[in-house]
């Protein structure tokens, strides 16, 4: 991660590159990547969160929880996915109507399904469906760009509108930039919310203190592997990685290594209260804890993601008690997930939301 552009470079399959585009922070290289990463980081730095995101996050949370009722049985996975896409669409595009959010959610679902598919652009193949979804998403983003150009700063076009007004990027590059942020911020946030509630369900003491986010990211982190390509022959310990080799480092192997964490495969949020683990919690540059990647490709939306997750946990725990209605367990292939989607029964707490 700290040899980006030197010994290794970011590398992805053709289908993924085609879908996320060339003007996005995920696939860009060199100077272009540094420029895009800086723009994304500045747009979502901590001081900006209070003025541009906090009120909208709370509005979306209230809308979501208003649709959840006492004695209702839900598949929490679906609720978290809907909430995450609502948050991202609202903050990136300024969209809040149920109809528009629903349309974007379906388009984005089709888009994601094709990201690691065979790149066969024929009807009936996931790649073809995903490319059509990408084109429709781009049309919606371009519509927001035109409206912003017409109405100026008074038009709420979310992050798209801010990019247009500030002139940070040319119009033709904005769509790829936003699609990258949608992809990076949606599924990751949804699954971290889901895993946090899953772990809390089995840890009553942690539930009472809500010490969960760092431990959830350690044990159930979404970015459990990366894709890199060796730019030259690389000597590593007793091995030589030949130039051009595809390298897949698994972050979860470090996160669940007993040499670094006692009881590494056990959910124990109280480990972060131990003074000897304080330095490990520094996710910006600690080699033993990298839930948001690292180096020049450290996730630019990390502060926003943590804010969304923290507010979700606060609202959910203050609004409901719940009971698990079906056994579930984690799987880490092809990515971290709960195999049954975590079905639970809700009990609304009177007098809150």
Q: Spell out the helices and strands N to C.
A: EHHHEHHHHHHHEEEEHHEEEE
Give the proportion of residues in helices: 40-55%
Q: Overall 3D geometry? A: globular
Alpha plus pi helix count: 12
Strand count, sense and closure of the main sheet? 3 strands, antiparallel
Structural class by helix and strand composition: mainly alpha
* Strand order within the widest beta sheet: 1-3-6
- Poorly predicted residue ranges: none
Total strands:
10
Which percent range describes the beta-strand content? 5-15%
| Assembly category | single chain
Mean pLDDT: 88
CA radius of gyration is 21 Å
Structural commentary:
The protein is mainly alpha-helical and 353 residues long. Helix content is 51%, strand content 9%. It contains 12 helices and 10 strands. It has helices at 14-20, 30-43, 46-66, 76-93, 98-113, 126-151, 158-166, 171-201, 204-209, 213-220, 251-255, 302-319; strands spanning 8-10, 73-75, 228-230, 234-236, 239-241, 246-247, 320-324, 330-331, 337-338, 343-348. The strands form 4 sheets. The chain has a 3-stranded antiparallel β-sheet with strand order 1-3-6, with no helix packed on it. A 3-stranded antiparallel β-sheet has the order 2-10-7. Strands 4-5 form a two-stranded antiparallel ribbon. A hairpin with a 2-residue loop joins strand 4 (234-236) and strand 5. Helix 1 (14-20) runs parallel beside helix 6 and helix 5 packs across helix 6. It is globular and about 50 Å long. The chain starts with 7 loop residues before the first strand and ends in a 5-residue tail after the last strand. The mean pLDDT is 88.
């Amino acid at each position: 991660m700290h040899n980006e552009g030197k010994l290794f470079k970011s590398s992805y399959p053709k289908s993924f590159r085609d879908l996320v585009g060339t003007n996005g922070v995920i696939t860009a290289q060199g100077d272009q990547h540094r420029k895009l990463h800086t723009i994304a980081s500045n747009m979502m730095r901590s001081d900006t969160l209070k003025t541009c995101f906090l009120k909208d996050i709370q509005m979306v949370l209230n809308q979501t929880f208003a649709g959840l009722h006492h004695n209702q049985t839900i598949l929490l996975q679906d609720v978290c996915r809907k909430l995450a896409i609502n948050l991202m669409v609202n903050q990136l595009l300024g969209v809040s109507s149920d109809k528009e959010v629903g349309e974007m959610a379906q388009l984005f679902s089709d888009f994601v399904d094709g990201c690691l598919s065979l790149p066969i652009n024929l009807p009936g193949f996931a790649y073809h469906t995903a490319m059509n979804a990408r084109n429709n998403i781009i049309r919606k983003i371009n519509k927001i760009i035109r409206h912003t150009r017409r109405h100026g700063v008074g038009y709420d076009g979310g992050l798209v509108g801010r990019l247009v007004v500030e002139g940070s990027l040319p119009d033709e590059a904005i769509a790829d930039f936003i699609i990258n942020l949608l992809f990076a911020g949606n599924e990751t946030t949804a699954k971290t919310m889901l895993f946090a509630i899953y772990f809390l369900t089995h840890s009553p003491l942690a539930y009472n203190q809500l010490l969960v986010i760092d431990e959830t990211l350690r044990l159930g982190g979404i970015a459990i592997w990366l894709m890199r390509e060796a730019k030259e022959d690389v000597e590593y310990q007793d091995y030589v990685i030949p130039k051009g080799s595809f390298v897949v480092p698994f972050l979860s192997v470090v996160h669940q290594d007993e040499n670094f964490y006692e009881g590494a495969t056990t959910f124990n949020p109280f480990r972060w209260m131990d003074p000897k683990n304080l330095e490990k919690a520094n996710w910006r540059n600690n080699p033993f804890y990298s839930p948001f990647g690292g180096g020049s490709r450290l996730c630019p939306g990390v502060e926003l993601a943590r804010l969304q997750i923290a507010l979700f946990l606060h609202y959910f725990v203050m609004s409901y008690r719940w009971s698990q209605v079906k056994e579930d367990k984690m799987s880490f292939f092809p990515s971290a997930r709960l195999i049954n989607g975590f079905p639970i029964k809700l009990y609304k707490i009177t007098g809150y939301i």
